[in-house]
Amino acid sequence: MNPKKIYRLMKKFGIRSIIRKKNRHKHLYDAYKSHHYFENVLDRNFNVDKPGTVFATDITYLTLSSNERYYLSAVKDLCTREIVAWKVSKSLAISLSIDVIDQLVERYGEDYIKDNDILIHSDQGFHYTNPKYVNKLNKLNVTQSMSRRGNCLDNAKMETFFGHFKDECNYDETKELMDLTEIIESYMDFYNTGRYQWTLKKMAPAQYRNHLLAA
C-alpha cells in the first residue's frame, strides 16, 4: 500500500504510529553475552603437589577509616599458599585482574606459563569473564576454572587469605594510595616469608616452596 494512503487513513481514524524507543539496556545485554563462563575444573582440590602450576585469584574491597574504598587483587599458589602477584587500586577497571596476570608472567616467564598446563581458578565476577581477560589467558595456554555461582567455598583459599589479611594488616588508617601500597607490600612479605602455617609443615609459604623444589 502507498505510504501516503496509509498516512491519510491513519489521520482519518486517529491512529498514531508508535515508534519503539532505543533500548538503553541492549548494549549491557550484548556485553553480557560476550562474557565467557567456565566449568569448576578445580572442584575444591586445593591440595596441589607441584608449585607454580595451580593458582587461585580474587578481588576484595578495603574500606579505610575515611570511608574511601580501594580494591585488592591477588593471585595465590595453591601448592605453597604463597601470594605470587597482587595489585591495589581505587578503580575496579578490568586492568585490576589483567595486571596480576602480567605479574605472573614476569615472575615465571611466558614460556613456563605456556608449557606447564597452568590452571587459574576464580569466581564468576565480570573481571574473570571479560573477553580481554579470557583472551589473555587463552594466549598463554592457561586453563580457566570458575566457582559455581554464589558458592564462595569453591574459592575458599582466597577467602581465607583475605580474611587473614583484613584481620592482621593495619591498613584502615592510611590516606594515600602510595602509603596503602607500602603497607600491603610489607604484609605480603610477612605472609610469604614469616607467617608459618601448620598445613605447610610449620613453614612459611616461600620456605615451603624452597623445601619442595629442593626435594
From TrEMBL:
One family name in Pfam for this protein: rve
Source organism, top-level taxon: Bacteria
GO process annotations (BP): DNA integration
Gene3D superfamilies reported in the protein's UniProt record: Ribonuclease H-like superfamily/Ribonuclease H (3.30.420.10)
Keyword list, A-Z: Transferase
Protein name, as recorded: 2-dehydro-3-deoxyphosphooctonate aldolase KDO 8-P synthase protein
The protein's Enzyme Commission number: 2.5.1.55
Start and end residues of each Integrase catalytic domain: 47-213
InterPro entries attached to this UniProt entry: Integrase_cat-core, RNaseH-like_sf, RNaseH_sf, Transpos_IS3, Transposase_IS3/IS150/IS904
GO molecular function: 3-deoxy-8-phosphooctulonate synthase activity; nucleic acid binding
Organism this protein belongs to: Haloplasma contractile SSD-17B
UniProt-listed NCBIfam families: transpos_IS3 (NF033516)
